[in-house]
Design a protein that fits this description.
This protein has 16 helices and eleven strands. By secondary structure, the protein is of the alpha/beta class.
């Protein structure tokens, strides 16, 4: 029964796929672009019912084999899914269970261990496929022919312009990664910059860069949870890039409330983060969200941008501007995926050098190959999205002069955002 269903599904795919069943029989194309070798009968049912996340887990663990380019593999994945992964809705009871699990997942200790699980597998591994600044977030392709490195610099400067950074201002970067934005803001906008991270590797890496660049007087990087930042020395501007996905839905009110308290009245916050594609689902279905949670981002949770805007507003922040970068992230992720695919042997050697045995190194590499390409497709297909939300801590001041009666710490037009001010 399953074999016949698999044959039908393979005929409808946009790429040529062959499947080798556990008994040695083959289904699908005789000249395949993608070949999947199943090793037990249970996997046949997974494939027939479109449980691609479970198949992905089997591939990562070495319990199934997969051949083909990641672009062809992902074209097959889209065709195998029974429906769009954002159409599956969570019930009232499952939403309540998710909130309870979220509270358990996001203690300070668990957040630290989850971040270290993801980021502390070795800086050199990330350096293989990231741009030279190691900016591990969505780039901004302000022109069609931009390279990844150019698009990342365009993103860094876009954030600085949105925040209207000025010389001498105190600037905080929450979840500062490998320091790309932190150092760009200091070097191009003359701010006093502080970054925080939960990753030991990133903390050490950025502090080496600060010393090499002679920026010790203007830049600091701390190993710290955002919840431990003191409130008695607020910042003029704050960025949070690729971090709020790790906060947890149950902690989101405290997250925005704490960041508001860390801002001076009139200060600005730029929150750049991945959001759910649908309003009723907290992760991508089809087993894809479970795959990411198990192998890549334990503890990651998504919410729709409308919920994020609501919670931020309820915390006392004013939403000034919202921009979707979804197509930019699809292009960014494909650039990362293509870069990794071109250096698989080197990546495997690096993972071994980190102390992983052959089996573990192979498992990590297979997981990351599927993750990067899978995320690229997810953004292409609108299963997930990403937004930059620019928010202010209202100061209550009434403007005088040319615009009497206006109450705003933000320009009346967006013109300034799209005119580069970097030196």
């Amino acid at each position: 029964m399953w074999e016949a269903k698999i044959e039908q599904r393979l005929r409808d795919l946009p790429v040529r796929v062959a499947v080798e069943l556990p008994d040695g029989k083959r289904a699908g194309s005789s000249n395949p672009q993608v070949t999947l070798r199943l090793k037990n009968a249970r996997q046949i049912g997974w494939l027939a019912t479109g449980q691609v996340g479970a198949i992905g887990e089997a591939v990562v663990e070495g319990n199934a084999d997969l051949e083909g380019t990641m672009r062809d593999v992902m074209a097959a994945v889209v065709g195998l899914l029974p429906d769009a992964p954002i159409q599956q809705r969570s019930s009232f009871w499952s939403q309540g269970w998710q909130r309870a699990v979220s509270a358990f997942r996001h203690t300070r200790e668990k957040d630290a261990s989850q971040i270290q699980f993801h980021y502390d597998i070795g800086d050199d591994f990330y350096g293989l496929w990231l741009d030279p600044r190691r900016v591990y977030s969505c780039a901004y392709f302000d022109r069609p022919d931009a390279t990844l490195a150019q698009a990342q610099e365009a993103k860094l400067d876009l954030i600085c312009r949105k925040l209207m950074l000025k010389p001498g201002e105190r600037f905080l970067d929450v979840g500062a990664g490998w320091g790309g934005l932190l150092l760009w803001a200091a070097e191009h906008y003359d701010v006093q910059a502080q970054g925080i991270t939960l990753s030991h590797n990133q903390h050490a890496y950025v502090n080496r860069l600060i010393e090499e660049k002679g920026l010790q007087e203007r830049v600091r990087m701390d190993l710290m949870d955002y919840r431990d930042l003191p409130l008695d020395q607020p910042f003029d501007k704050i960025s949070s890039v690729g971090m709020f996905e790790h906060v947890g839905v149950v902690n989101m009110p405290h997250y925005f409330d704490h960041l508001r308290k860390l801002l001076v009245p009139g200060g600005l916050l730029l929150n750049h983060g991945i959001t759910a594609g649908g309003t009723k689902n907290s992760q991508v279905s089809g087993g894809l969200g479970d795959f990411i949670a198990r192998f890549i981002f334990p503890g990651g949770e998504l919410m729709h941008v409308s919920m994020a805007a609501q919670i931020a507003s309820e915390s006392g922040l004013e939403l000034l501007d919202a921009e979707s970068l979804r197509p930019h992230y699809a292009k960014t992720l494909w650039a990362w995926s293509d870069a990794l695919e071109g250096q698989l042997d080197t990546a495997l050697q690096m993972l071994r050098a980190q102390g992983h045995d052959d089996a573990r190194a192979g498992m990590i590499l297979r997981a990351w190959r599927l993750y990067l390409a899978g995320c690229a497709v997810a953004f292409e297909q609108r299963w997930v999205s990403i937004y930059q939300l620019l928010l202010s801590h209202p100061d209550g001041k009434i403007e005088t002069g040319t615009l009497p009666g206006a109450q705003s710490c933000y320009p009346f037009t967006r013109d300034y955002i799209y005119r580069s001010t970097a030196k």
